[in-house]
Design a protein that fits this description.
Layout lengths: L6 H13 L9 E2 L18 E7 L5 E4 L6 E7 L3 E7 L2 E8 L4 E4 L5 E5 L3 E9 H12 L18 H12 L8 H25 L7 H13 L7 H8 L3 H12 L3 H19 L4 H7 L5 H12 L3 H15 L2
Parallel strand pairs: 1-2
Antiparallel strand pairs: 2-9, 3-8, 4-7, 4-9, 5-6, 5-8
Helix pairs in contact: 3-4, 5-6, 6-7, 9-10
Keywords: DNA-binding, Transcription, Transcription regulation
GO molecular function: DNA-binding transcription factor activity; sequence-specific DNA binding
Organism: Caballeronia cordobensis (Burkholderia cordobensis)
């Protein structure tokens, strides 16, 4: 046992003593469906719980998360996917999201989501009381009564993504330090979420109206088979190319070019699954110059060729058929 009178070390030791009781085994709970363990959170006490969810399906899946009365849920996506999500009846995100995309659900919030691509996520369930206590430890004062973690709305955060990946890797550890390691990573995710909220409070940015993003995405969707340039979309939005690209990525987590490519590939997947059009015709219809270019991009993103994906989709449909 180390004894010290250094106030800095004493504060750090006190923080560690405070944080250590707020975790419990198992280190990582595997969820059978999206946020499936949320229903039992109110019975798990004043502790942080960590869960992992993975779904390889490429058909639309709709979910409604159980409402929490005492826990925040910090979700970090481990891969790019496509999501339609609403919170408390209002649209939160609709379209492709990137690796590290983060969403924070506060107690009493109602969240509904649908995924049309494979998805993988870490969920960190944090009691409201722990958030208040960590705020006190970090800031030296109690949080305001109306304090809430800020919801990024599935904005991409590469640091969050890396922390979540490291947290997933702790499942393979089999030594006395594994539990402490996962605890530290979960706490890092919580403090990152708190840090992001503080940055928004300190540096408020003028929010763009919802129609701005909806209008630009609708324009891109209506011209998937055409050549669409950054200048075209920026002119529609009434912004310079650089300003538009910056605002678009801040809101979606993806560059306009990447977002458009994902939309084209998602449309192509639907056409491939229907199995009515030749692959070359699909490639042209979604805006690629040739089947070869389409195949290269498709394989880079999905890990398989369009033909192989079509066969896989057909096999899945046969298995799911009644």
């Amino acid at each position: 046992m180390v004894t010290t009178t250094d106030p800095v070390l004493v504060d750090r030791a006190a923080a560690y003593d405070f944080l250590s009781p707020h975790f419990e085994l198992p280190v990582l709970i595997k969820e059978v469906s999206w946020r499936s363990i949320a229903a039992s959170m109110d019975n798990r006490g004043d502790r942080i719980n960590i869960a992992y969810w993975k779904d390889e399906a490429h058909v639309e899946r709709r979910y409604s998360a159980p409402t929490q009365s005492s826990h925040y849920i910090i979700e970090v996506l481990l891969r790019a996917t496509t999501i339609t999500c609403s919170k408390n009846g209002r649209n939160l995100r609709n379209g492709p999201v990137a690796f590290g995309a983060t969403q924070v659900t506060a107690p009493e919030d109602q969240l509904e989501a649908s995924f049309t691509r494979s998805a993988e996520a870490i969920h960190v369930f944090v009691p409201r009381s722990v958030v208040a206590s960590v705020h006190l430890q970090l800031h030296g004062k109690a949080a305001a009564p109306d304090y809430r973690l800020v919801d990024p709305g599935f904005a991409a955060d590469t640091m969050m993504g890396k922390l979540a990946c490291m947290l997933l890797e702790t499942e393979a550890l089999r030594n006395p330090y594994a539990h402490a390691f996962s605890n530290s990573l979960a706490m890092a995710i919580l403090t990152r979420a708190m840090e992001n909220g503080s940055q928004l409070d300190e540096k408020p940015r003028q929010a763009l109206p919802p129609w701005w993003l909806e209008r630009t995405i609708a324009y891109m969707e209506s011209r998937l088979g055409e050549r669409v340039t950054l200048s075209d979309i920026a002119d529609l939005a009434g912004l310079s190319r650089m300003h538009f690209a910056s605002q678009f990525k801040r809101l979606t987590g993806l560059s306009p070019h990447t977002y458009l490519t994902v939309m084209r590939l998602e449309t192509a997947k639907g056409l491939l699954a229907e199995n009515r059009m030749p692959i070359a015709q699909i490639a042209i219809s979604v805006g690629f110059n040739s089947q070869a270019h389409f195949t290269t991009v498709f394989r880079k993103v999905t890990g398989m060729t369009p033909q192989r994906w079509r066969l896989s989709a057909a096999s899945t449909a046969q298995v799911e058929a009644p």
